[in-house]
User: Which sequence fits this backbone?
């Protein structure tokens, strides 16, 4: 088993709706830290993390975002452009992986997050898809939908859903 | 991280609906083997697997099934009784864990599987709940319900759902 190919974990990550600058959402950070702590643990060579950030076109207006970032250096030239928002988000995850020695890749796509995530699962065939979720009640879910519910049903690989805990939930639970 | 407490993984397992004798269902076996292969990998000391088998009272008629089985030996005396069905199921998982050196525990509860699983999550606070599922389409789901969908929404810990693949699906996909 030690020589086997690493377990490829695709993580859908998004920006916080709370802060002005593109920090990772509470549920994305939670899902990421949990995965390192409880799944990867000390076996850093056994896993490769794939970070996918899906931007909704009308919100962000990017044209050219199918780039791949595989190291902190890859982000420098991109930062000069408006694409810096998404790159900044992904940099958070890539920097953290490099610091602890976990292989990773990160990229940005545009589209409907739930559709794009399931499409990327089909394309990349990861071993596992990790999606954070807000843990909303049924009433709140009616209005915002949830990416995680869709992915659990439709993604063609095992899916782990990680809810925020009560103490991580912001004043308005629809925020993240 | 190497000295940290192991990641405690609760797995809901059930019997096959196909064979007469209590073999593990296709989706339970798939979820188990996948967890060993893709999550535990070579880090056998980093994980503890907790196997929960929930029997529906009217189907099985057991009275006394809150026992804990922690090693293959624990099963011997129980085999003399009718409870052997559930014990045989759990023995499959416990034997396999012992063979590869992964710590485990297994027990039987009776009740509604989805309710009991979520109750045991609350009681034991595992790091992760693993549930296999048949991967049924929406039409089939209407008639059989799914334990996994309920657990994703209600269990108070991260949940991983693992669908059977197309080639593992029996002739009648409601079978498992």
Assistant:
């Amino acid at each position: 088993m030690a020589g086997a190919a690493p377990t490829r974990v695709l993580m859908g990550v998004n920006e916080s709706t709370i802060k002005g600058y593109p920090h990772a959402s509470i549920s994305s950070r939670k899902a990421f830290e949990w995965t390192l702590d409880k799944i990867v643990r000390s076996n850093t060579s056994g896993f490769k993390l794939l970070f996918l950030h899906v931007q909704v076109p009308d919100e962000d207006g990017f044209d050219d975002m199918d780039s791949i970032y595989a190291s902190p250096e890859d982000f420098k030239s991109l930062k000069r452009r408006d694409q810096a928002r998404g790159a900044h988000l992904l940099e958070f995850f890539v920097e953290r992986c490099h610091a602890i020695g976990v292989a990773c890749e990160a990229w940005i796509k545009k589209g409907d997050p739930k559709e794009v995530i399931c499409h990327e699962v089909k394309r990349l065939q990861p071993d596992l898809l990790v999606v954070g979720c807000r843990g909303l009640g049924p009433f709140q879910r009616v209005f915002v939908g949830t990416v995680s519910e869709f992915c659990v049903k439709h993604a063609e690989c095992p899916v782990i859903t990680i809810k925020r805990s009560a103490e991580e939930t912001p004043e308005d639970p629809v925020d993240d």
Summary: Chain B touches chain A through 23 residues (CB under 8 Å).
